[in-house]
Fold this sequence. Notes:
alpha/beta; Rossmann fold; 25% strand; globular
Amino acid sequence: MQTIETKVICGDSRELMCEIPDNSVDLIFTSPPYADQRKSTYGGVTPDEYVDWFLPISAELLRVLKPTGTFVLNIKEKVVDSERSTYVLELILALRKQGWLWTEEFMWHKKNSFPGKWSNRFRDSWERLLQFNKNKKFSMYQDAVRVPIGDWAKDRLKNLSETDKTRDNAKNGSGFGKNVSNWVGKDTVYPTNVIHLATECNNKNHSAAFPEQLPEWFIKLFTQEQDTVLDPFAGSGTTLVVAQRMGRHSIGIEIMPEYCEMIKDAVEPAQQLLL
Amino acid sequence: MQTIETKVICGDSRELMCEIPDNSVDLIFTSPPYADQRKSTYGGVTPDEYVDWFLPISAELLRVLKPTGTFVLNIKEKVVDSERSTYVLELILALRKQGWLWTEEFMWHKKNSFPGKWSNRFRDSWERLLQFNKNKKFSMYQDAVRVPIGDWAKDRLKNLSETDKTRDNAKNGSGFGKNVSNWVGKDTVYPTNVIHLATECNNKNHSAAFPEQLPEWFIKLFTQEQDTVLDPFAGSGTTLVVAQRMGRHSIGIEIMPEYCEMIKDAVEPAQQLLL
DNA sequence: GTTCCGCATGAATCGATAG
DNA sequence: ACTATCGATTCATGCGGAA
């Protein structure tokens, strides 16, 4: 019997992250408020201010993340005056200067982004998932996210299986059939850096910025049970809910009181995990 | 009867672009050599040098492009020392300083990306298609690239009963209901900014960096017949071949003599177009 | 004339080994 | 220590020969 802790902190990430000890977090997964032209909305930071606003927070993230931990940032720049803003590009460069390694850029392909039409552009149906690390060596559990092999394989391999396996065994004779081991259990493969998920329909009363499968995928990939996940912009709490369900400790910080209450309702204060 | 001209120039883009008149090109579609760690390979430019190497070329591109024209750049940064290089980000910022507008970033999802397995990353399965313009107003022929409606949309529309539509119309007036009425009975929709194509499998004697459908899509989207397409890094000539077949004039520049000959063999010197 | 299957082949990346 | 080269790993695709 193990306890899974899910901690919700209400307030500003810039002030409250000091409560979190150094090198204590295995995964940071967050989707910060995107820069917006309009001020005075939730987290209304303009594109110009964005990097300066973010850097103090990421400095704290760098402090609390374990050396083997990973920071995943879900973000997509908006269109301002017919152009894509460049603040995300500038943020990546600034984070590297701050000491982060920019390990990878995953792409989330939002399959069913809602229809719409503009004269000078098509619907935006992808978002960036930027992976940053403190060191070149970090924890990654690739087998946790294997996916079924593509449909092409079913057609190609269906008549091939039994006869081909025996033939390969006979031919090699001596050694342990190298090829055979490749074919056996070949119904899953490793994924790529393109993540194919539908956006969630907001069937509940609150809408999340991303579907539960998105944090789930990264939590599987970068953490094990009993590890700790941090979301400094918890929003409606999707990351925390998923982390708790998956047996990971989690910490969420959220500045909007109504979201805070929502998260507290959504998560159990302490969940018992059977080991 | 109209003549379609396909011009192949052998040599260095930096020197030979001066032959092209100002404001004469409708679309630049190119895939420059990606930055490479090793020197002394084809186009061996290191990541550090890349921006400085590219800017003189893009200055010429800015000159020859029509005010309503579009520049599409296919590129993807490699991994260097366990990190993604940042030269593409820096290039985008530098191009904006040079006067280009960064209108959009399309995503090419390569379904059959190069295989491999590593301890710290998955296979890279996408490339950037950066769209730059000289002005906010540019030519775009969206109807030319309509795609068959996706299965998800079929399901969605199928389950959408009359009452649903009325209710939605009543609820928020504009928006969903209106769009749906546009959709009903249609079997094509506008695409998104994610392009889903497999790379060409080179069992032929020529290999191209990208499949013909890639330039084809952008040529459809940004040009009409009799327009002019430029590829300053023509490579095996895919862009030119496609442009010619689609009834667009084209100019290609290529520095490697053997590729040059290949292109000249692949394209007809002057194609007769029946109007 | 179809359909089926074997095979080669990539805009790759890491880690070990060698100079 | 620092760089250059090489082998191992892996999967979707289209061609061509076979059934």
